[in-house]
Amino acid sequence: MDSQDDSDDRRIGRRTFLQGTTLVAAVSGFASVLSDSGVAVPVDTVQPTDRSVFTADTERTDAVFPQSVASGGPTPEGVLLWTRIAPEEYQGGPVAVEVGWDDSFSEPVHRGVVESPAIMADHDHTITVDLDGKLSPDTEYAYRFIYNGTASRTGRCQTLPDPNATIDSMRLAVLTCQDYQNGYYGAYSHVAEENVDFLLHLGDFIYESADNQYRAPISEEYPDRNLELPSGHDLAHTLADYRYLYNTYRSDPHLQRALERHTLIAGWDDHEVADNRYWDYDTDSPRLPSHPEGDDPDAATRITAAAIKAWVEQFPARIDYEPAEVGAPGDLHERFRLQRRFRFGDLTTLVLTDERLFRDPPPAFANGDKPDRTMLGTDQRQWFLDAIDDAETQWTVWGNEVLTMPLEMGTGAIGSYLNRDAWDGYRDEYRTIMRHLARNGTSNFITLTGDLHTAMAGYQRTGYDPFSDDERVGVEFMTPAVTSVNLSEIVLGIDDIDPFDVTEQAVTTLNPHIEFFDSSIWGYSIVEFTGDACTYTVYSVDKSVKESPRKQRHETLRVPAGTTEIESVER
Ligand SMILES: [Fe+2]
């Protein structure tokens, strides 16, 4: 099934969901949060009766469109376009959408309006417009929204190539982990200028905290990035809290510029809801172990549903919805499916997974495991394996949230996995996946990972015993955090040692499958796929500089096509 088919499935899913909302309207609790009549689903435009809706100036652009614009959900024949109208500016009436070849809009490609019922306070005055079927493959467009005589800033969007087209290269900007309170988004100012096809975000787009708790003792203060949640709590509790966080994060000018320039493919991780979250299959509810109400199944469900609703409002993404059956309102698994895939012509397939909504709790003890402990859940795991097996492109890419390779910080009896919240807590399932891929002869398999606030590269294997016949399956590239606290920030307070060297040496000695490890930088990576190679370049950007931080190329590595070898590229 190619990306076009995926898109068709989603359309059916959306329609079914909308019909289902009438069924679940009477259901209380989280179901009503998630399925209000104001569910933020992508909408089609209609032809305007009054052409004057396209007459506009830009005098009040930022007042009317304070979060600017974004695009996402690319298909070969469309994208989703997103904006938010400031609630105090919205007085009813249609919002117009204009798509052109350039920012003059002198030759409109598409013009339409969204009628006012689609812009309801129920979804925080966000609008997502679906242009699937209206645009051409592998094409860049300019777009803008117009409301009441004011035009938004002009964005640029990009469609996918035709699934069968021959593609020479495809470039992704890869980002993750952008704690607003722990630095500035200078990385995004450079991403905006990068010549890439799409922006891939691997999660922790927001952090649920307003009290700066995800920082190190030596972290710099950023008083102009203080936050105050509407609920008054330190951690998000309500839909209003999550909306506030997204709207504040998206007020950042560098982030806005990058989302205006590039079409977004967004995943998520734990902090879009709460730290280290997982699913408790005994109570069939999410669990938020770091949240004061996170052990209460009802509260954790309510908080997760609120966070999901805010996510759906904020991201132009083709997410599957399915209606819950009356009497089974607690099944978030049936109602929100983040996992999806994208095909970039004959060159690359990207398979994006959800590693939070279906995962078992991590093991309580280091090296602990149980054979059926799952990160993906049974259904998603099968979907994932099928998607990899079915990929007909040269490269197959896993858009992945948490580190898949083992990261051991000791040997023998004292050996311990550092981060059991990552795949180190779910080793048996990882082995199952890798063995499946090896058995099926999967080649040119690249995994792009976020979460650990570190730049890293290494090998995915069926096993890591040096005396066995375990084999390499693929290569994992981790992108550094935009701002979130990294290892160097945590240990820099120790005098007389260079923590970067010590950490990298320790990690690569104890983990010979890891070729490159650096937790001393912040920034982003550019990953390019061609017929010859996959090339990963990490850029570091100083997060403490607000306006114009320099970027530095920090490392470039490549994997020649047909191999599982990481090669260094001379700088
Ligand atoms: Fe993070």
From TrEMBL:
InterPro entries: Metallo-depent_PP-like, PhoD-like_MPP, PhoD-like_sf, PhoD_N, Phospholipid_Metab_Enz, TAT_signal
CDD domains, alphabetized: MPP_PhoD
Domain (Phospholipase D N-terminal) ranges: 68-159
Positions of region (Disordered): 550-571
PANTHER family: ALKALINE PHOSPHATASE FAMILY PROTEIN (AFU_ORTHOLOGUE AFUA_5G03860), PHOSPHATASE, PUTATIVE (AFU_ORTHOLOGUE AFUA_6G08710)-RELATED
Protein name: Alkaline phosphatase
Domain (PhoD-like phosphatase metallophosphatase): residue spans on this chain: 172-535
Cited PROSITE patterns: TAT
